[in-house]
Amino acid sequence: MEIEPVTLSTPRPVRRPTLVQRWDELTFLHWPVEPERVAPLLPAGTRPDTLDGVTYVGLVPFLMRGVGFGPGPGLPYLGTFCETNVRLYSVDGQGRRGVVFRSLDAARLLPVLVGRLTVRLPYRWSTMRLRREKDVITYSCGLRRRPAARGRTSRAVVRIGATIAEPTRLERFLTARWGLHVSWHGRTVHLPNDHAPWPLHRAELLELDDGLITTAGLPPMPGPPVSVLYSPGVAVRFGTPRRV
Fold this sequence. Notes:
Layout: E1 19-33, H1 35-38, E2 46-48, E3 55-69, E4 81-92, E5 97-106, H2 109-119, E6 123-133, E7 136-143, E8 153-163, H3 169-175, E9 179-184, E10 187-195, E11 201-210, H4 212-215, E12 227-238, E13 242-243
Parallel strand pairs: 5-6
Antiparallel strand pairs: 1-3, 1-12, 2-4, 3-4, 4-5, 6-7, 7-8, 8-11, 9-10, 10-12, 10-13, 11-12
Protein name: DUF2071 domain-containing protein
InterPro entries: ADC_dom_sf, DUF2071
Organism: Streptomyces endocoffeicus
């Protein structure tokens, strides 16, 4: 099986979008993990995508804006909310790279219900807040329901640094992802997406108190993340899901 190369633009341009949205004020936090530890958590027909024999766990808080169906336009209120996802990296039998979401915490109930019922993504309704003061961003998240919310909280404080002119191999591997893999009605599908190349910045993690990774079924992450990146955001278009 030949795996598609990591490219800064999608190898599968979306001609007829089924969903549009913006991802703004993102922080990417990543830890290395052995592929065999996360392989059982991936959908059938996929395996961990690796770089130099290592795969990664990502914690990605951001602001979702303007979610809308078809070519848009997006919804200004219902389609705008804070979100935090815990994700893994996957590749399928056709060589398509993607991400697998272990959890997606979102602050707006209706998109949570739609995401769970239509795309079968593991959305959870949470209290979330994003606060920016000059070059420092604070993300906070906690599930609404008790006692199920016990331990399922996250708080990250990040200082935005210099613009990245040329991403490293690892930075491209972690961010240049042109689809997701998900179990959908008993089978695994690949849902492609398309957006401009990421505008990336170096970032410094000032504080992290996270309980989302372990409650997503993953082992505790040893030590600080090996990669901390920030992006002001991109406009995204999703295409038609394809069976794996």
